[in-house]
Here is the input.
Amino acid sequence: MTSKNQSSSSNGPVLQNPLSNAPSTVEWIQHLELGYAEPPRPPTICFGCGKQASETIKLSRCGKCSVAAYCSRDCQVQDWKTGNHKLACPSYRRALTIRSPYCEDVHATIRNELFARTRFYGCPYAVFRTTDLGRGFLFLQSDQTLQNMSLYTCKDLTGRTITRSVLIHFLTLGEFDSEVCKEDFELALVRTKLKELVDGYDKEKEVVLLFKFRCGHMSLGKAMLVPDYKICKKLGQDYYAENPTGALQLNLDEM
Ligand SMILES: [Zn+2]
Ligand SMILES: [Zn+2]
Here is the structure.
């Protein structure tokens, strides 16, 4: 599913820092791994200056996360102090656990963080669109893997800068069937539970969420509206009235 009609986040308030431990307000109901193949990773570069390892340059890893690599002590100190590795280090350590099949709690934490970062846009958007369309859900698609989305800075596990964005649509079940599933038939795997949620949620208190990441990780859940309904209604009007049918694109690294 694509939309040419996207609105940018540039007029809204700045996204919340994800590092604050957002309370887990999402009840996750179903998750799936479609297991899309990822291209092979390029070799790691220095997280400080970007140099590649060579015969003369040897990279050594951060002792805490074993991910970040540096060509020199200077680059390491610099990245720790000014490049935010101090903040990001635990997220690299965590990222290494993501491919294990037994870490749904880690996956849920990462999805909760993503919801916490986007809910001040997504919830008002859902409330606003519900007024026109009736019951539906937020379909949040990420152009990055769950692993890349889990990192606290915009450098991937090889040290390369990434820009991460999510595209959010509000969809009714009818649109889900006629537009989305036609292009992406695997989404039909969540149809039964999705219908239960969309038929049953409290429009003035809750929002239904379907997350999909580039790696094929998908999850369906239900969350409390944050901010609350009245504020969502007001913000929805303020933000989205001028572009009522567009999808919402949020660039998470423009912070
Ligand atoms: Zn370096
Ligand atoms: Zn580290």
